[in-house]
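Give me the fold.
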Amino acid sequence: RTDCDSSDGKCWFAGGADGANYPPSSLRGLRSPVAVTADIGVNLTFIAKWQMEPEYADGTTVKPGCPIKGFDGVQVRVFMDDDEDFTVVQPDGGYGTGPSGETALYAFLSEGVYDTTAPCSNFDGWTDSSSVFKKFNVALGAFAGEHLHFEFLFASDAMLEGPGFWVGEIKVIGQGGVLYEEAGGDPAMVPYVYMPAAPAAGSIRPFSGVPVVAGYPKGYVPDLAFVKRMVTRRAPWSAKWSAAAPLAKLQRAYVGWSYGAPVFVRAMLHPGQEACVRLQAPLHGALQTATLFALRTKIGVTSVTLTMRVPSFPFTPLWVPWQSSSSPILDPSTHRFDLENFGPILRKGQDFLLCVGVVAKLDIDLFQHYLELPLTYLGAKAGADGPGRTFLLAPGNASTSEADPWGGFSLALRAEFVETWHPGWMLKDSVEPAAAAAPVHGVRWESRAVALTTAGAAGCLVALV
């Protein structure tokens, strides 16, 4: 308690010590020591004043349809005798609203008093400042017949603080007279300091919706108020950030597909053949990395190759094949090819093939060698004339299977494309490269149909559902 301008010269005070502001992330209660019987005409009366964090209605909500009018605040609530189920009660005239009717106070959410399943009225309270004592009245007739305790609850979030909240001359008055009066000799009000419970592993934080993946140590107070979010919101308009590193400024995009399929389909890739998928350069640049998703099952395969090819006959390589080793017994299941500084630079919109092959060194029939691949579902793209078109290629004679050999399924192959400019390209308006008379690599290819031979790719890749 502290000295104040009340009738008995004393008030209860929620604030800092020795005139300091109240601390951040604070949750304090002041409860009645005895129960009073509510009835029609029974009222809780008191005087109060406060100086807290300024009102700030910025459109943020504590839950859908419940916008905040401020952050720190105080509310009055009652609970039945021997029951911790509180009900927030309204003083005559209410707690006030923000400029557009906002009512909620954020600290009641951030400090874990209520979660987003609570009604919007639970987040009501006084905020901002009222520099002189005012008398308030809370009608308790709605709880007629109940034995009630009442509580003044103060909450602050992790950001701005203020001097605090003062309350005094606390009475409960009924039609027959005074039922409770601290200054009249009844037991004193009981202060409570709430300690926020450490979030349990597997729970969901009420404001962010982020799951807690590990329990906090006992006594650890998490940043429930999202200090970083609050600081960013209040950043001055003159704030500056250092320039990004040159590599960070480059555009990046992904081509290809990771694994995803309604049913599990796999295929066996044999030496002497390649599984190819057609892709398109999303920007002017080059491949940085590529990842092939495989299965561990194999026979005789010692490495996996990735070859970038021209998308038309004779499917000439655009660069030497990249290789990823495969251990003697089981395949590592994921092959990551580091292509940085090793590969051609393509124009935006230029089509190309990525073809996967295998290398075997065992002295047996090559058709008995294989690596199993999981197939991802592309649907009609696998057979259409564009990105996603999938077929089997025999590099020795450039013969191919029909498009879409696996009925809508293709390789689980994904690559990162990074912006790069070929030194010989002319820029027009500093954006698009000038048209070239010939492909980037200076080679013209004839387009002609190729009959699939028995020794080619036909029948070499078997899909197992």
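Helices lie at 107-110, 227-233.
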